[in-house]
Amino acid sequence: MPQATVHLLRHGEVHNPEGVLYGRLPEFHLSELGQQMARMLAEHFSERAAQGARIVHLAASPLTRAQETAQPISQALGLEIATEERIIEAANYFQGLQVSKGEIFKPKHWPMLRNPLRPSWGEPYKEQAARVTAAVQDARLRAIELGGDGAEAILVSHQLPIWATRLSAEGRPLWHDPRKRECTLTSVTSLMFDDGGTLLRVEYSEPAAALLPGASRTPGA
Predict the structure, then answer these.
(1) Measured distance between the N- and C-terminal CA atoms of the chain, rounded to whole angstroms
(2) Which of 17, 44, 106, 107 yields a CA-CA distance of 20 to 30 A from 138?
(3) Domain span at residue 60?
(4) Residues 219, 99: contact at Cβ < 8 Å?
(5) Does any domain span residue 220?
(6) Residue 150 zone, left/alpha/beta (φ > 0; ψ -120 to 50; rest)
(7) CATH code assigned at 115
(8) What's the pLDDT tens digit per position in 188-213?
(9) Number of domains in the chain
(10) Quick check: is 41 in a domain?
(11) Is 183 a domain residue?
(12) Distance separating alpha carbons of residues 221 and 212, to the nearest angstrom
C-alpha cells in the first residue's frame, strides 16, 4: 500500500475579548488576525501543491473557528471541506470561564483538579489521542484512495487534541505542562506514514509565524 501524509492544523486566532476558555462553545469566530493566519496557511499549501504535493483531502472540526480556518485552503486547493467530528476540541469542565489562576483555583473547583494526569477536569488525554488517531488513519486511507502513493490530507483541529495525538504517536507520556505545547496558532503537525500505516516521522512547522507575536496567548485557546 502507498505512503501518505496527514497534516494536523491548529485553527487561527479567535475573537475572544473576554479571554474565556471557549472549548466547544458555538459561534467563536476567527479574529481579523486569525483570518490573516488562515489565508497564510492557504498560501503555504498552495505553494506546496505548485511544487508537486498531491493534497487531495480536507476536513475540519465542526467548530466555527476550525471551519473558518479551512475555508481559504478549500478555495485555494479546490477541495470541499468534510466535517470530522472526531477532531473536535477536548471537552473541558472550565469551558466558558475566564482563564486565570484566580478563577480556576477557587475552592468550588478543587474536586475537578484532583488528577491532572488524566485530567480530571475534562476529556482524558488517552481518549482524545484515540479519536484523533482514528480520524488520521481514515484520512490517510482517503488520501491514498484519491491520490495514490505520496498523497496528503489536511485536518483542521485544536491545540490539545493535536498535542495529545502527537505525544501518543511519539510514545511520550500524555500528561504535560500546557505552557510547553509545541502547537501554536495555525501550526502544522505533519504525520508521515509508511505503506502499512506505521508512523515514519513527525514534522512541525509554523507557516504563520510572522503573525504570532501579536496573537492572543489565552492558555488552551
Answers:
(1) 38
(2) 44
(3) 4-214
(4) yes
(5) no
(6) left
(7) 3.40.50.1240
(8) 999 999 999 999 999 999 999 999 99
(9) 1
(10) yes
(11) yes
(12) 13
